[in-house]
Amino acid sequence: MLSVRKLTKWYKTTQALEDVSFSVADGEIVGLLGPNGAGKTTTLRCITGIVEPNRGEVEVDGFLLNVNEQEVKRRLAFVPEVPNPYDLLTVMEQIRFVAMAYNTTEAFEARSEALLKRFDLYDKKDDLVLGLSKGMKQKLAVVCAFIHDAKTILFDEPLIGIDPRGAHELKEMILEARSNGCSILISTHMLDTAERLCDRIIILREGQKVAEGSLTELHERAKMGQDASLEDVFLSLTEADT
Amino acid sequence: MKALLYLYSKQIKNSILSIFRSAKKLLAVIFIFSFIFMNIGVSAMVRGSKYGGPPVRFMPMTADTVWSGVFLIIVVFLARSIFASFKEGLLIFSPSHVDYLFPSPISRRSVLTFKLLGDYIMSFACICLIAFFFGASLYMQMRQPMFPSIWYAITAIWFLFIFIANLSHILRLITSVSSDRFTAARTAVKSIFILIAAGILVIAGIHYLNSGNMLASLSNAARSEVSKTIFAPIAWCVNVVVGPMFGVDYGSIGGQVMWLGMLALGSFAVLVGYTGKFYEPSLAISSRSARIREAAKGGNFAAVRIEAVKGKVKDKGCRTLLPPFGRGAGALIWKILIIKLRSNGWWLVLFLIAPPVAAALAVAFIKTDNISKYLPFVIPYATLLIAVNPGMQGQRNELKQVEIIKTIPDTPYKIVTCLVFTQWLFAVLFTLICAVSGGVIITAVDYYLLWLTTIATITGSFAFISGGAILAFLYPNTRDKLSMTIPGCLTFFMIMLLMVPSIIIGVIAVTTRCSLFWSGFFLIVINGLVGLLALHIAGLALKNADPNEA
Fold first, then answer.
1. Angle formed by the axes of helices B412-441 and B345-365, to 10°?
2. Which end of chain A has the smaller Cβ count within 10 Å, N or C?
3. Higher-scoring residue by pLDDT: A72, B343
4. Which of A163-172, B51-60, B173-182, B456-465 shows the lowest per-residue confidence on average (mean pLDDT)?
C-alpha cells in the first residue's frame, strides 16, 4: 500500500508539486498521466527518496519515508525513464548488485535466470552493460526491479525503447505482480497502455492533481460519453483552461 | 556495505580487464607506462652522472617568487571550489548511482563514504601520474634526488586536495538548505572571501606604489603573514612542494604534511558524520555533468559547450554574421563555425583581445630584456593551450559523430580535411594575432625569432590537428574513466613527438642564423608533409570507423 499525502515541492521559484495526495492499494495499478513538466517524475523521485519534498508524506506499508527511510526503500522498486545501469558491470553482476543492495540473494541464480530468459537477455548475461543497446538496458532495468520482493513498484515510462515482445512480457509481469498483491504506479505518456493496464488514473497538470478515478469516473468528470477514449478525456482535462 | 564493495571491486576489475581484451588499448597503456618509466630512468641516470651540467636556474625567478606563484594558484583553486559549492557543488554522482544507489535501502552514509573514498583514490592516482611524469624532468634539471621528497609533495598535495574538496562538499550540503539563516551564512562566507582577496590586493597595491615592481608586489602579498595565516594549509602544502627545490628540512615538512593529513581526516569525519540528506543537493550537478558527458560521448564538442552554458546561449544574429555556405563536406566548415560563434562567444573575445592585452601588460611590468628573450617561445605554448588543444577536442568530438559524417556524400579524405581545416584556421588566426601584437607592441623583440616561431607554430599546428584526427578514430571517447586517459596521454605524446622536427629546424636556424626564407621553407615542407600524411591516414580511419565501437 502506497500513500502520498499533500506532497509539495519547489525548485527555487518553480512549484513542481502542490499538495498532491493519492494512494495505491495492494493489488492495484494506478497510472500517472500528465503533459511534459506536469510533475510526474518529481512525484516518483519524491517517493523513492531521491528528492526531498518541501512538505508532505510518503508512506509504504505503514512506514513513513522520512522516519523509516530504509524500511520504505526495501519495499520499493523503481524503473527509471532513461536506463542507466552500470556500464562496467556485466548483466549478471548488475542484477547481483541490486539483489545484494536489497539483501535478497536467496534463490538469486534461479530467479535471475528466469527473468533474463523471459526478456531475451540470457545470452548476454556475461556481457558488459556498455555493449547493450538502449532497449536491452531498459529490459535490464525491469529485471532489476523484479529481482527483489518489492511490495510497491514504480515505473517511469517503462515501455519506451522495448521491442513488442519485451513490452508484452512486461505487461504480463505487471499484471502478475498485481495479482500477487503489489501496488503499482506507472507514469506514462502511452495512453492506450494506461487505458488497458490501469485500474485508476491520476492526471497531473502544472504540479497539481486535476483528476483521479477509474476511466468511467474520468469520463464523467470530463463530461464525455463512455465511447470517448482516454486520449479525448486527457486532452479535455489537461487543456481545460488553455 | 557488502553490495557497495561488490559494485566497486567489479567495476575496477572489469575496467582493467577491458584494457587486456583490446589489443590497441593494451598497446597504448604499455606505450604510456614505458614512456613514463623511461623518463624517470633517464632523469635518474642524468642526475647521477657528472655530465649533466650545473642545476638549471628558474629564469629570473627566486625561491620566493616560485613559492608565491604556487601559493596564489592554489588560493585561486580554493576560491573556485568554494564558489562552486554555492552554485551546484562538486559532489557528482553518476546517473547509475542516482538510479540504483539513491533509491536503494543502502544507508546514505555508506553511499557517501564509498563515493568519497573512490574519489580520493582516483585523485591520488592522478596526482602520482602527473607528479612522476613532470617531477622526473624537474628534479633532473635541479640535480636533486627525486626520492623521498616527491612522496612528501604527492602526499601534501593529496591531503590538501581532500581538505579543499571536503570543505566544498560541507559548504554545499549546509547551504543547500533553503532557509534565511543559511542564505545569510552563505552571503557571509562569500563576503569574507571577497574581503580577504581585496585585502591581499591592497597589500600588493601598497607594495607596488613603493617598489614599482608588480611581480615582486604580488609575491610580497602572498608571503605576508596575513595570507600565510589565513591560508595556512595552503602555505604548508607549498612549503612541502617547493621546499625540495631550494634545500629541504624533512623534519619541518614532515610536520606540515601531518597537519594537512589531520585536516583531511577531520574534514572527512565531519562530512560522513553529516546526518542531513545530500541526494538532492548533488542531483543538479550530477544530472548536468551526465548530460555533458553524454554530449561528449555522443560526439559533439559544441553540444558539450552548449550544455555547459545552457540558458545563456543566444543566437545574437550569428546567422546574419555568417550566412550558410559550402556544399558536401564543405558545409561542415559553416556548421562548425556557426556553432562556435553561438556557444563560444567569450572564448572568441578572449581569443582576439588577450594577445594585445598580454603584450601591453608585459611591456608595463616585465623587464625589456626578459620580454625579448622569452616572448617568441610564449607564442607556441599559448597557441597550443588556447587554440590547438580546444581545436583537437572539438575535432575529436565532431569526428566521433560518424553516423552523420559518414553519410555525407563526399570522400572521407575531403571530410577529414574540412574538419581539420576549420580547427586549424583558429590556430593560424590566434598565432598571427599573437605575433602581430608582440611585434607591434613590444618593439624590443627579436623579430627573426618571432617570425620563425610563428611559422613553426602555424605549420606545427596543422600537423598536430591532423594527427589528432587519427587518434580520435583509433581511440574514441568512452564512458570508462580509465580508458579515457589513454587518448589524452597519446595526444600529449603525439604533440611532443611531432614537435621534434620543428625544434631541430629551429635550433639549426638560430645557431647558424640561416635565412628566414629557408628555415620557413623547411618548416612548411616538413610539417606540411607530416600533416598531409596524417590527413590521409585519418581519411582511411574514417572510412573504417565503426560507430558501435565508441
1. 30
2. C
3. A72
4. B51-60
H/E segment holding residue B134: helix B108-142
- Touching check for A102 and chain B: CB below 8 Å? yes
Half-sphere exposure at residue B527, Cβ-oriented, CA atoms within 13 angstroms: 27
Residues of chain A neighbouring B280 (CB-CB closer than 8 A): 50-52
Distance in angstroms (rounded) separating the CA atoms of residues B321 and A57: 55
In A, residues 122-151, which contact B (CB 8 Å cutoff)? Answer: 128, 130, 141, 144
Residues above pLDDT 90, as percent of chain B: 15
Dihedral sign (CA B336, B338, B341, B343): negative
State the smallest CA–CA distance between residue A6 and chain B in angstroms. 20
Tens of pLDDT along B432-458? 998 888 888 877 777 888 888 899 999
Indicate the average pLDDT of chain A.
Answer: 89
Q: Which residues contact A242 (CB under 8 A, 6 or more apart)?
A: none
H-assigned helices in A88-163: 91-101, 108-118, 134-146
Instruction: Please write the tens of the pLDDT for every residue from A31-64.
Output: 999 888 889 999 999 999 888 888 999 999 999 9
Cβ of B283 and A73 within 8 Å? no
DSSP state of A128: B
Q: Do A102 and B104 touch (CB under 8 A)?
A: yes
Cα separation, B42 vs A28, whole angstroms: 72
Q: Does A15 touch chain B (CB under 8 A)?
A: no
Give me the interface pTM, i.e. the ipTM. Answer: 0.89
The answer, for A86 touching chain B at a CB cutoff of 8 Å, is: yes
How is the beta sheet containing A55-60 ordered, strand by strand? A14-24, A2-11, A55-60, A63-64
Which of A97, A155, A156 to mutate to test binding with chain B, by most B CBs within 10 Å of its CB?
A97
Q: How far apart are CA A59 and CA A23, in angstroms?
A: 9
Host H or E run for residue A203? strand A200-205
CA–CA gap between residue B158 and residue B114 (Å, rounded): 18
Q: Does B183 touch chain A (CB under 8 A)?
A: no
Helices (H), B299-446: 301-308, 318-321, 331-343, 345-365, 368-383, 389-400, 402-405, 412-441
A39 vs A17: CA distance, rounded Å: 6
A183-192, B176-185, B335-344, B428-437: least confident range: B176-185
**Cβ atoms A137, A94 nearer than 8 A:** no
State the smallest CA–CA distance between residue B40 and chain A in angstroms: 32
Cα–Cα dist A54/A8, whole Å: 6
Nearest one of B72, B92, B94, B75 to B83, comparing CA atoms: B75
Beta-carbon separation of A97 and B100 below 8 A = yes
Per the CB < 8 A criterion, the answer to whether B162 and B264 are in contact is yes
Substitution target in A50, A88, A90, A147 with the highest count of B β-carbons within 10 Å is A88
Whether A97 has its CB under 8 Å from any CB of chain B: the answer is yes
Chain B nearest C-alpha distance from A10 (Å): 10
- Put simply, whether B419 touches A (Cβ < 8 Å) is no
Q: Please report residues of A whose CB lies closer than 8 A to that of B107.
A: 70
- Phi, psi for residue A234 in degrees, rounded to 5: -60, -50
Contact B20/A at CB under 8 A: no
Closest C-alpha among A138, A142, A134, A136 to residue A124:
A136
Helix or strand or coil: residue A82?
coil
| Contact call for A141 and B104, based on CB within 8 A | no
Shortest CA distance from B111: residue in chain A? A101
> Is the pLDDT assigned to residue B517 strictly greater than 80?
yes
B81-93 CB burial, b ≥16 within 10 A, e <16: bbeebbebbbbbb
